[in-house]
Amino acid sequence: MRKLYGLLRADELNQVAWPEAVRQPFLDSQFSLQHHHFVTHYARADFYVVQHQGTDAGRLYLLREPPYFHIIEIALLPAYRGGGLGSILLAWVKALAAENSADGIDLHVDQRNPDAQRLYARQGFAVTHREGPYIGMRWIRNAQLS
What we know:
The chain is α+β, with helices and mostly antiparallel strands. It has helices spanning 2-8, 10-13, 20-41, 85-99, 114-122, and strands spanning 46-52, 55-63, 68-76, 104-110, 126-131, 134-140. It has a 6-stranded mixed sheet, with helices on one face. The N and C termini lie far apart (40 Å).
């Protein structure tokens, strides 16, 4: 998980001319802080490494507690974006929500990530609120039946 975190942050960190001796401790501390936050605030969440053909492709952190499941984080490495893997993951989470009689799924997306916003909109998620740099979105399981 720590290595995957570093790969997910690579594009961001490539904008800073830090030597490896500085970069790696920074990534380690950021991962530790983030992971501590997630396990403290979402102790009952599932933490998945997403694989594609046996290779780590990203991660999915999911809190499966009705009435609304919560996607804490869904992150794919750049090589796996735009190829349908995100849609497959969302379909799987929707199926889990339905199997567990959840009303739907909540998530937050960075407002600077229009590709993810479009993906979620295509998957039936609607904007619920804006909070700082994030947009709250919700998919309601039976919305198409109303």
